[in-house]
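@channel sequence for tomorrow's demo:
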Amino acid sequence: MTKILIIIPAFNEEKSLGSVIDDLKKFGYKNILVVNDGSRDKTGEIAQKKKVKVATHIMNRGLGAALGTGFAYAKKEKYDILVTFDADGQHKATDIESLISPIINRQADVVIGSRFLGKWQSMPWDRLLANVLSNLMTFTFYGVWSSDTQSGLRAFGKKAIDLIQIRTDRMEISSEFYWEIAKNKLKFKEIPIEAIYNKDTLKRSKQEN
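C-alpha cells (generated this afternoon):
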C-alpha cells in the first residue's frame, strides 16, 4: 500500500487550518504533518486538537525551513509520496488524487499543481506578475520550465524525497525545487488545479514566510 504524507506548513493560520485538515480527512488523507512555524496564534493548538502529527519551530524560520522539516520526517519514516498543501485554504483536497497519479503510475518523480493550466483562475495582478517573473527567472537559472513555479500544491515520489536537499529557509524554496529537479534528473510533470482566492487566502502574499 502506498504511504502518502500531507505536509502543511503553517504560520499564524488559526482561521483556516482546522477546516483544511477536516477537508483532507474527509477525502481519506489521514497521514498529515502540520509544521507549526513559530506561530503566535492558536495554530499549534488547533493542529493538536485535530489529532494530526505536529512539528513545531520555536521561532518563525520560513517556508523553506518548514518544508525542510517535513521532508526530513518523510524520509525518516520512509513515505512513498509527500504532498505539500497550503494551510490558508487555497487548495482543494480533490486535486490530490490527480496530483499523485503520475507518481503512482511511474510517469513522474515530481508533480506540480499549476493554477495556469486548464480552466483559468482569477489571480490578483500583483501575484500574477510575481509568478510570471519567477517562472522566467527559474527557467533562466535552472533550465526547467514551469507555468507555476510558486504553486504550493506539489507531490514528490520516493526518489525525489530521498534526493532533494533543501538549503533555503524562506520563499525561495519554491524556485529551489527546480534546481533540485534539474540536478537530480528527476522526471517532472504539471497538472491543472483550481485555486480558491479570498481575503484569507490572499493574506499569505503579505506575510514573510
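heads up for whoever presents: Confidence is low (pLDDT under 50) at residues 205-209.
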